[in-house]
Amino acid sequence: MNIADIATPDYVELEAESEIGKARSIFESDNPKGIIVTRAGEYEGVLTQKQLLRSHVEDHTKVETLTKSAPKVERTADVRDVARALVEGGTKVAPVFESGTLWGVVDQDRILDAVLEHLDTLTVGDIYTENVVSVPEDATLGQVINRLREHGVSRLPVVDDDGLLAGVVTTHDVVEFATRNVEKTTRGDRSGEGDRLLDLPASDVMSSPVATATMGGSVREAVERMLEEDYSGLVVTPVDDDRAVEGVVTKTDVLRALSYTEEDVMDVQITNVDLLDTLSRESVRTSIEEIADKYGKMQVRHAHVRLHEHKEKLRGTPLIQCKIRLRTNRGQVAGSGEGYGAEQAFNVALDKLERNVLERKGVESDREYEGQLLRKLGEL
Q1: Are residues 321 and 281 part of one domain?
Q2: 87-113: buried (b, 16+ CB within 10 Å) or exposed (e) per residue?
Q3: For range 160-189, the mean pLDDT
Q4: Which CATH number goes with the domain that contains 63?
Q5: Which of 95, 177, 240, 280 is most exposed, with minimal Cβ within 10 Å?
Q6: pLDDT value for 356
């Protein structure tokens, strides 16, 4: 299947010289997946609401300062390839070209809607993201925003003192809440209003009750709910406890699953692939395969490497966070780390991944020994 009938020629466009304030207004009124940025009619990049939230720029700043590159796709491109491009580009929307000319856009919602009938074979437990980042109910709005920026995510489960699900706060919630409260005052009124908003607890901003999906539920049902209610993700809970947080399942997780390949080599996806710098995809794959080979019983079905750039720099080299997650026939295993430059960050995460793989190997060996011992005792 290609995207010829999925992409649309209708999209929101802004000139690179426009002010950020205009972009904010567009997101508040039209809620697009992203804005296509052009200069003199030529494509420059995209602007998303997440980029606005993660920045501290004033409304008079030019749109070009926050514009990021997005993968260019051909109108006849295969859906699987486009899904991979969106995941690895860390974007929800991509420009579609026909014969070298900007024709329209394609976004994750249009792709997911087109492939719904093929998602019945997957369960949420097959694709969800575990070890999710959360915040307590008394975390301040400022802390919530910092956590969203730090981890490059768009939603955070909010948990009570017992670690049980109390709500969820998203980038959209934060923007809507801040906008609604700022509009209550006129310019110059109530000095320090912004600071007081940042001190409010997460419980004042979060949505509750929370939209959830169970581990055993079908991906199709989860996607249908996300599309119907315009959610970017759902909190994942066990079948028998709708307040225990197992992880989250997002539209990006589904796109990633769509782009799994049947190649003989390990399928590796890299989010924010432009941050790789001195690393190559092949060197990343080889390093992960070497670790997987140390545990022969673990067959890696898919590897996901996520890179995130912090603002901190050392001699011009940015601080990078790297997360590696493997989906295997023995469940999921992950490792994360930070370093200056992608190579250092990847090596730190790789070291953590190896320790976690070997730890799992040791635990399973202990279980096997325990089982053998119990069987022998039973024979006595």
Answers
A1: yes
A2: bbbbbbbbbbbeeeebbbbbbbbbbbe
A3: 74
A4: 3.10.580.10
A5: 240
A6: 86
The residue-averaged pLDDT of 211-224 equals: 93
Tokens of 105: 């856009």
Strands (E), 246-368: 247-250, 268-271, 300-314, 317-328, 331-340
Is residue 283 located within the same domain as residue 355? yes
Last residue of a domain, one of 44, 71, 105: 105
Classify residue 247: in a domain, yes or no.
yes
Give me the number of domains the chain comprises.
3
3-state secondary structure 200-255: CEHHHCCECCCCEEECCCEHHHHHHHHHHHCCCEEEEECCCCCCCCCEEEEHHHHH
- Please report whether residue 113 resides in a domain: no
Residues 138 and 70 in one domain: no
Same domain (yes/no): 178, 144: yes
Spatial distance between the Cα atoms of 252 and 304, rounded to a whole number of angstroms: 12
Question: Are 318 and 310 a contacting pair, CB within 8 Å?
Answer: yes
Residues 295 and 340 in one domain: yes
Asked if 58 and 138 sit in the same domain, the reply is no
- Determine, yes or no, domain membership for 379: no
Please choose, from the candidates 263, 328, 279, 323, the residue with its C-alpha nearest in 3D space to the C-alpha of residue 302. Answer: 328
Q: How far apart are CA 27 and CA 55, in angstroms?
A: 15
Query: Structural domain of residue 53, as residue ranges?
Result: 13-105
Both tokens of 14, joined, read: 């802004």
52-66, 289-303, 342-356 — most confident range: 342-356
| Of residues 174 and 140, more confidently modeled | 140
Q: Which two tokens stand for residue 2?
A: 């290609």
Q: Treating both helix axes as pointing N-terminal to C-terminal, what angle do 342-379 and 281-293 enclose, rounded to 10 degrees?
A: 20
Beta bridge partners of 73: 96
Structure tokens at 234: 């759902």
Residues 128-138 as b/e (b if ≥16 CB within 10 A, e otherwise) read bbeebebbeee
Q: Taking all residues of the chain, what is their mean pLDDT, rounded to a whole number?
A: 83
What pLDDT does residue 380 have? 45
If asked whether residues 139 and 60 sit together in one domain, one would say: no
| Residues 245 and 273 placed together within one structural domain of the fold | no
Closest alpha carbon to 153 in 137, 177, 176, 129? 129
